[in-house]
Amino acid sequence: MSTETAKSKDAYNATIARITPVADGLSLFLLEPDRPIDGRLPGHYVSIGLTDPDSGKLIRRPYSLSQSLGSTCDPNLLELLIIHVPEGELTPLLFNLTEGDRLFLRPKMLGSYLLPKLDPDMSIILASTGTGVAPHMTMLETCVEACRQVVLMECVRYSAELAYANQIQAYATGHPNLLYLPLVTREGGPKRYIQEFFSEGILEQEHGIQIDATHTHVFACGNPAMIGIPREDRKTGALSFEIQNGLIETLIQKYGLSIHKPRRPGEIHFEKYW
User: Fold this and answer.
1) Residue 4: is its pLDDT beyond 80?
2) What is the spatial distance between Cα 169 and Cα 241, in angstroms, rounded to a whole number?
3) Tens of pLDDT along 40-60?
4) Could you tell me how many helices (H) and strands (E) the chain has, helices first?
5) What's residue 263's pLDDT?
6) Are residues 32 and 155 in the same domain?
7) How many domains in the chain?
């Protein structure tokens, strides 16, 4: 082992407590930091890393924290929903690990994809693709307990990739203010995408969900093609959309919502994964 590799591994400060396969190339990782990390809020992410065996360098990547419903695990444990990217630098190493192996975990909670102050008249819509459901799982129970209406939408390729579907469906039976809409695109049947539920008015027409800037906040996480993040002119503030009919464009133009910024609070919150 090179000196550089040894120093990199000396930075390891967390243990893999559990790995739960969900689908092919998709697993839940439960991490136990050597010391508890304070300040956790729904929507936060952490940075993890492993040493590249060839270069000896520590490869780090950010991952949103997730949360299984009704978990009885130690609250200091951190849950991550991770997909294996064969051409990636970190996940091929990560998916070769087993329970009990060590890794680096930055000892700080990070991120601004956080819930606003909630009130009983508020409707929260959580929309995600793929592993973008992870931060929404950390928000779900808080929103359901505090808000009038919560909609959790997730779009995946195959139903096996709906990592929390059974948990969410069981939870929804006891919470009538929660609507769960899982969408699958590659298993036959009608193919619907999240943005269509807004642009075509499906949420209103089929589910009675009213969307307005006074009471609605929308959180979007995952594929940029779903979110449709605009460019903003620095001088004029004008927005231009390279992706047509993305979620953000529809929310602004059809429903009058605005993008949330720290100094200018709005109703549209987004976190892109690439």
Assistant:
1) no
2) 35
3) 999 999 999 999 999 999 999
4) 8, 13
5) 87
6) no
7) 2
Within 13 Å of residue 216, how many CA atoms lie on the same side as its CB?
Answer: 19
User: 114, 262 in Cβ contact below 8 A?
Assistant: no
Q: Are residues 134 and 232 in the same domain?
A: yes
Query: Is 80 in contact with 90 (CB distance < 8 Å)?
Result: no
Lowest mean per-residue pLDDT among 6-15, 47-56, 57-66, 230-239: 6-15
pLDDT band at 222 (very low <50, low <70, confident <90, very high): very high
Dihedral through CA 222, CA 248, CA 233, CA 45, nearest 10? -30
Q: Tell me which residue of 51, 38, 46 sits closest to 4, measured CA to CA.
A: 51
CATH number reported for the structural domain that contains residue 209 in this entry: 3.40.50.80
Are 170 and 206 in the same domain?
yes
* Residues 114/142, Cβ–Cβ less than 8 Å: no
Question: Residue 62 is part of which domain span?
Answer: 3-105
Q: Let me know whether 77 and 136 are in one domain.
A: no
pTM of the model: 0.94
Do residues 82 and 136 both lie within one domain?
no
Distance of CA 212 to the CA centre of its chain: 23
Q: What are the structure tokens assigned to 249, written together? A: 């464009």
Query: Per the domain annotation, does 203 fall within a domain?
Result: yes
